[in-house]
Amino acid sequence: MRKKFVTIVLFMGLTASLMAGCGSSNTSSSESPADTTSSSENTEAVNSQSGENVSGISAAGTGDSAANVTLHVVDINADNDEYNKAIDAFEAAHPGVKVETNHAVNDSQEVISSLIASNDIPDVIAATPEYGDVYKEFLYDWKDDADTLAQFKDGYVDSITEKDGSVLGLPCSCINVGLVYNKDILKEAGYDEIPLTISGFEQMCSDISEKTGVVPFIVPFETNSYFISAQMLDAYIITKDQPGSVCADKFNSGELKVSEASGNFSNFWKMMDIATKYTSGETLLEYDWEYACNLIANGKAAIMTYGDWAYNPITQFNADINLGFSSYPVSENADDSVTPTSVSQIAMLNKNSDNFDVAKELAIFLTTSPESAEYWVKGYGSVPCSKAADDLDSSYFNPLLQQSSKNATEGKCVDRLQNYYPTASGVDFMKDAADAIQGYVIGTYTSDEATEVIDDAWPVSES
Known about the structure:
Elements: H1 39-49, E1 69-75, H2 81-93, E2 97-103, H3 108-117, E3 124-127, H4 131-134, H5 146-149, H6 156-159, E4 170-182, H7 183-188, H8 198-212, E5 215-218, H9 227-233, H10 244-253, H11 265-278, H12 281-284, H13 289-297, E6 301-307, H14 311-315, E7 323-326, E8 339-349, H15 356-368, H16 370-379, E9 383-384, H17 399-409, E10 413-415, H18 429-441, H19 447-457
Parallel strand pairs: 1-2, 1-3, 5-6, 8-10
Antiparallel strand pairs: 3-8, 4-6, 4-7, 4-8, 4-9
Helix pairs in contact: 2-16, 8-11, 9-18, 15-16, 18-19
């Protein structure tokens, strides 16, 4: 079960494309999507609302009921040719239906809130899972759509299920946090991959520095990139036996402090020490995620902490770079290494859409179809949650996604704590944790003091 945090759109700042605003023809919350249909269509709509997998429009269309229907989508992604190809396929299979998408990359919350305030709620919203909490009263609950939910890989639906059992969206894609590295630099230093022990990682960084002259390991700490170090911290809290959901419940109840969840927490400070051995904390505070990607791309740094979505921003600086992706070393036991993972976006359906049935089909299409799996991989560089991804050509997956899939197969991917950060008013665990980490790398805090700040940042009895 999930408990969502409220920091909106962390990694989606990687792209910058904002389309013009869009409207939607929607009823008020008291109206049914069947109110404007004929008697027979009304029955279909009611069945759909009850959770049965009933569609008011077939792949070939249904004549008048499909005529001149415009569906409005708001998402948090940049405009993309692969996405547009998928939408073209949906429209071709549904004559008379047009899909208009507002790609609200940088101000999605403002765009959606404005549309809701003007009673122009989008038919489908594709955004990060915490939006489900924000707009819950307007969203369709998929919990009874068993056939649809069965189309996703194990674990993904569970990870976005609310405590009351509701499923407020369909999982689109997942992201994995880890170490991104320049494979050619590692090879020059005598390594094919990153060692998965702390001591092995430390020795590798020494070898990289001595043999190549390149900065071995960087962690960007610039103000707008504060989330990156906090995302890394997850790996030193969660374990394969105690994933994010379990940890959060224990933190909320006061059974454990954050630093007590595993025996690996202190090793996070060792990783920070390795980074600051080669680049001062003050300098790292000037590095944002984009500059760090540039350093990796141009051979000025070997390894950075980031995620498997880094392929596109790095290759924009150097299309020929040979990239690798690794789980984090968290202890002296390589088997303890983890890759924090989570569903990054869900497709949410407006339960009061005037065109509910075909909007429902669109939400399902955007998350389970082969076309959608292809655009999530090729267009946005992320791993699809649907089983349709298993049938994709392996060449579609860039090297980082290939390694993420391998990590998952090897059991290294663990539901990350970030999915369950506390949401009490005035609480921002991620920012407080990042501030503590920054304080440590510039010498404001000792490791014990920074640990205390992080422990205190998670309130007990979070409901």
